Amino acid sequence: MDEPLSNLDAKLRAQMRTELQELQHELDVTTVYVTHDQTEAMAMGDRIAIMNDGELQQVGTAEEVYRSPTNEFVANFIGSPSINLLTATVEGDLLKGTGGFSYRLDDPAPVEGYDRVRVGIRPEDMTLVEDGIAASVTVVEPMGNENFCYMELGEVDLTARIDSSLRPSPDETVEFGFEETALYLFDPETGEALKTMTDETDVAIEDYVTRPE
After folding, report:
1. 4 lies in a domain?
2. Each residue of 42-84: pLDDT tens digit?
3. Which residues of 96-115 are buried (b: 16+ CB within 10 A; e: fewer)?
4. How many structural domains compose the chain?
């Protein structure tokens, strides 16, 4: 199937996702489903294959590609809102980035030998705290059960998924924090993952691809 739901409105598209999954279960067949909509891929796929410029980047379950991306492209492609990304210099166990970003690692092993790295934090892993990294609020989008808080940290735009009871005002300065276990680190040149949420996945590309000799 090549983007079969792309011309449907949002409500009908969600309904058809369910109907297609029920049909596939009833027929017990393998289906290749092509889509640019990562929500469709994650909702429907038993295994997701992510392509970039015609090259296979990663194959895995929705949870594997979301929490253990092989590179920055996969991390940025999967997830809505997208993962927050910024560049930081490495000073021993300290990461320092734009706009006053500073984070001290308990385990600096992933960044050993690097002068700088790309840092990723998913919006749901960020929390507003009293003593954290300061950022300026630009927009808050109420979603009912949660709010999307858009912020600026120097020249970097950030997004946090916060509780619906929290609604800071535009131009207000807030402070955020996150756990080190939720931190993603990537090679700044190749984009390859140095640290992910679980640091490993049980599905390798080689399990699905026969490479030419």
Report:
1. no
2. 889 999 999 999 999 999 999 999 999 999 999 999 998 999 9
3. ebebebebebeeeebbeebe
4. 1
